[in-house]
Amino acid sequence: MVSAVSYEYLKSLMGAPGGIPTLDGDGEIPIGQLPSTIALFKGQFADEADLISDFPTAELACYAYVDDTLSFWYWNAGLETPLAPAWVNQIITESDYDDLTNLAKSMVPYIIIADPPAPTP
Questions:
Q1: Alpha carbons 4 and 79: distance in angstroms, whole number
Q2: How many CA atoms lie within 13 A of 37 on its CB side?
Q3: CB distance 47 to 80 below 8 Å
Q4: Residues 45 and 23 in one domain
């Protein structure tokens, strides 16, 4: 037999950090109850426009696969104005990577590729 004390204790753990997750109206655990280190896959998209159309904003650790770039894109909340938070391709040229702030660099697991050679006249 369950006592009122054990019921109240279990009820106090529902939705609490380190406690028991609850479900929202869609039967999913709300983002705020998930660990901050969890990665959230948003799906596979034909191109960047489709990704942005479906998810104009996202949360830290969100990522998606974009077919036309053959790469994963990550939500980077650390980009600064005028760029603003945005989806970014993990594959980036060395010079574009150098132009990022340290905070922006820390927000996405970039794959750095060599800059293309300058065209010859």
A1: 50
A2: 0
A3: no
A4: no
Let me know if residue 88 belongs to a domain. Answer: yes
- What global pTM score does this model have? 0.58
C-beta of residue 72 within 8 angstroms of C-beta of residue 65: yes
| Cα–Cα distance, 50 to 45 (Å, whole number) | 6
Which structural domain, as residue segments, surrounds residue 75? Answer: 35-113
CB atoms closer than 10 angstroms to residue 100: 20
Q: Are residues 47 and 14 both part of a single domain?
A: no
User: In this predicted model, what pLDDT tens digit does every residue of 19-62 receive, in sequence order?
Assistant: 888 888 888 888 777 776 667 889 999 999 999 999 998 877 78
| Cβ 59 vs Cβ 37: under 8 Å | no
Instruction: Give yes or no: residues 60 and 7 share one domain.
Output: no
- Looking at the structure, tell me whether residues 48 and 10 fall in a common domain: no
